[in-house]
């Protein structure tokens, strides 16, 4: 939005005079691509067959509701509080995105730790995510160097934060996949299968785990 809206650009420079705007076309494409992918996944979750006990967890519903409520509150405050600008609302949305990003990596990290294995889990998505985060940060530093404006790196906390978060969590995924659990076979205790709603025989148990693991990919 800040790339196409002159009003938002003006508000940005009002908040950060004489600084470089780090939002570029690739950031817009990244956001649109993310919306499309998430939209497809939501449609799949609604219409595809799922297990009887598969549902959105209570903590996820609570956190999502609180984040949505905070966005609505900001949406009400911006037009009513003189000191607030619409660019401040966009900043708040970016902070919500940072929180969601930090949360979304955790289930897969925990699942790998719980199983002591990364068998059946693709490392390529992590490699691509790590590459994207690294290049995003590199772009910020190149722009800052080109305009001799290093302070501007801190004026886009969402882009910087997303890049750093992706690198941080993906390093842990690399450690799990290539060092801690390298070549380790998948082991599932029967009590965990019962807890997770596994089948009565080995085949059913494996299928139950495969369906569960797919939801975390």
UniProtKB/TrEMBL annotation:
MF GO annotations: L-cystine transmembrane transporter activity; symporter activity
Intracellular or extracellular location(s): Lysosome membrane
Residue stretches spanning the membrane: 28-48, 60-77, 89-106, 126-145, 160-181
Principal localisation: membrane
InterPro entries cross-referenced by the UniProt entry: LC_transporter, PQ-loop_rpt
Catalytic activity: L-cystine(out) + H(+)(out) = L-cystine(in) + H(+)(in)
Protein's recorded name: Cystinosin
Membrane topology label: Multi-pass membrane protein
GO cellular component, one term: lysosomal membrane
Location of region: Disordered: 195-217
Database matches in Gene3D superfamilies: 1.20.1280.290
Pfam family, one: PQ-loop
Family affiliation: Belongs to the cystinosin family.
